[in-house]
Design goal:
The chain is 26% helix and 28% strand. The chain has 222 residues and is α/β, with parallel strands linked by helices. The model has no long low-confidence stretch (mean pLDDT 94). It binds cytidine-5'-triphosphate.
Length: 222
């Protein structure tokens, strides 16, 4: 078994998405993009031809990575699907599940006496599920699951996503605790697949990315 990704095309999504409300406001999330960027760097070091579709983050593009910047979930969806075919897709982005039904063309103004604002949100398309169901489906499709809660809940949610989104691997990580998740330097992953699971880390995100890609590279269908 070899962990080399030489000659393989690897497509990675990273970072948050921003869903615009009006010309000055948006709905975002706390993803830093660091895990996805570290995965792109690790893919290059294993010899992959690597494309990174990045939401709005302030991170340097890793050497030899082709980067496509997007803003919204819809933009990320279009950019990712346009980059197929690929051998491996890793959905490390924290894609918004909801977006405002309409973007106001003018800044929303406060009105005297009006104390509430109701935003109508609609579901975004699921990029991971759409990649996994695509006629050009990559041989290996990997998703992430950011979860709060205990070990049993994390496993249940991750296995649910594995099945529902038809991914080959789901990498669950705990958010909302020190030393793991969105804004942390280090991270720990619990990788689930059909018939198995494996814990990686805690380790710095760069080291963890190498471990994860080595692990996936060895188990990718030929
Ligand atoms: N994802 C995606 N497109 C979306 C939403 C999520 O591709 N519109 C991907 C993420 O990149 C990540 C995984 O799906 O790989 C995370 O799924 P998540 O949003 O946590 O899962 P849900 O099934 O929406 O579950 P829940 O909101 O209940 O946690």
């Amino acid at each position: 078994m070899s962990a080399s990704l030489a000659g393989r095309r690897v497509l990675i999504s990273a970072g948050p998405t921003f869903e615009d409300i009006d010309p000055v406001r948006f709905l975002g999330n706390r993803s830093s993009g660091r895990m996805g960027f570290a995965l792109a760097a690790a893919a290059v070091s294993l010899g992959a031809d690597t494309v990174l579709v990045a939401g709005p983050v302030h991170l340097e593009t890793p050497t030899n990575v082709r980067r496509i910047d997007v803003r919204s979930a819809a933009g990320m969806h279009a950019a990712v699907l346009a980059e197929l075919p690929a051998d491996l897709y890793i959905g490390a982005a924290a894609v918004a599940d909801w977006t405002p039904r309409a973007v106001a063309s003018q800044k929303l103004k406060k009105q005297p006496g009006v104390e509430t604002l109701t935003l109508e949100l609609v579901r975004t398309a699921d990029i991971l599920a759409d990649v996994a169901a695509h006629p050009l489906r990559p041989r290996c499709v990997v998703g992430f699951a950011a979860e709060t809660g205990d070990d049993a809940e994390l496993a249940r949610y991750a296995r649910g996503k594995l099945e529902r989104k038809r991914a080959d691997f789901i990498c669950a990580n705990r958010v909302g605790v020190a030393g793991s998740g969105f804004e942390a330097e280090d991270n720990a992953l619990h990788v689930f697949w059909n018939g198995g699971e494996r814990r990686l880390g805690p380790a710095p995100k760069a080291r963890l990315a190498e471990q994860l890609l080595g692990f996936i590279g060895e188990r990718m269908p030929a």
